[in-house]
Design goal:
Blueprint lengths: L2 H28 L5 H4 L15 E2 L15 E8 L3 H13 L4 E5 L5 H4 L1 H9 L3 E5 L12 H19 L6 E2 L8 H8 L5 E2 L13 H11 L5 E5 L9 H10 L3 E2 L2 H4 E2 L5
Parallel strand pairs: 1-9, 2-3, 2-7, 2-8, 3-4, 5-6
Helix pairs in contact: 6-7
The protein binds zinc ion (ZN).
């Protein structure tokens, strides 16, 4: 291509770009282009919160849901060492209209891998994100500054990537906490150490063990713990959802049933 030709092409491209931009600007001023549908912002998926009474979060370690909330259960899922499992649980929640709380360790890449698909469901409040520390240490082995650094780094990650305030719920890794850990966490707004009453099984639980645990623990008022680390749970989604239906249980996030300073 000769110099003259190339300059002509470049100049035409330049004019084209300017014209395109002018059209875009005009469309924006008019509040949309020829097609109103095309101009509409992508809709946040609808996931209305269940119509249950909310209660002030009680002081101390949280292990259950307010009795007045009725036949509700909070399924809380931790860690996220497997990106595919995080994606599968999220798709499951959408498909079966469930509400879940994830206790995130931002150090695992699943939370950036899945950010784009997860974000609208966090925005709609179908999925609540809470703080499980950045890198999953036993907090009782850290000094106060170390405890706060672990929680704050994860807090900032969740704020930046998902636009949420994860406070006041934190789940100490291994469930290990004491009065000193709780005080250090509370000083940066993490005032609710969140444990559980019912576990979907040890890390390497089989499908059968997970179903047996769910049969034991899926009861009104419970906070049940599971993990986003291994895939057997993803092969019994249908049975888990059916069990919830049979028992008349509605899944809720913690924010659905508790009133806190950050989530009034
Ligand atoms: Zn954990």
């Amino acid at each position: 291509m000769g110099d003259v030709t190339r300059r002509t092409v470049v100049a035409s491209l330049g004019i084209g770009t300017v014209l395109l931009f002018a059209k875009f600007a005009a469309d924006a001023r008019d509040g949309g282009g020829a097609s109103p549908e095309a101009a509409a912002a992508p809709a946040t998926p609808v996931a209305p919160a269940p119509d249950v009474p909310r209660a002030a979060v009680p002081p101390g370690t949280l292990t259950g849901l307010p009795p007045e909330a009725g036949d509700v259960i909070a399924i809380t899922l931790d860690d996220g060492t497997d990106s595919a499992v995080v994606g599968a649980f999220t798709a499951f929640a959408v498909e079966r209209d469930l509400r879940l709380t994830y206790f995130v360790n931002g150090t695992y890449r699943s939370w950036t891998d899945n950010a784009e698909t997860l974000r609208p469901h966090v925005a709609s409040s179908r999925i609540q994100l809470a703080n499980h520390t950045w890198s999953h240490p036993d907090l009782t082995t850290l000094d106060d500054a170390g405890i706060q650094a672990e929680l704050q780094r994860n807090h900032d990650f969740l704020a930046e990537v998902y636009g949420v305030d994860a406070r006041p719920y934190f789940r100490p890794p291994y469930g290990a906490h004491d009065a000193r850990v709780d005080a250090a966490a509370a000083a940066i707004g993490y005032t609710v150490p969140t444990r559980w009453y019912g576990d979907l099984g040890p890390p390497a639980a089989s499908e059968g063990e997970i179903l047996a645990a769910a049969t034991e623990w899926f009861t009104a008022g419970r906070i049940v713990i599971g993990h986003l680390n291994h895939d057997p749970a993803t092969r019994v989604f249908g049975q888990l959802a059916d069990l919830l239906d049979e028992r008349g249980l509605t899944t809720v996030t913690l924010n659905d049933v508790f009133i806190t300073e950050q989530h009034p």
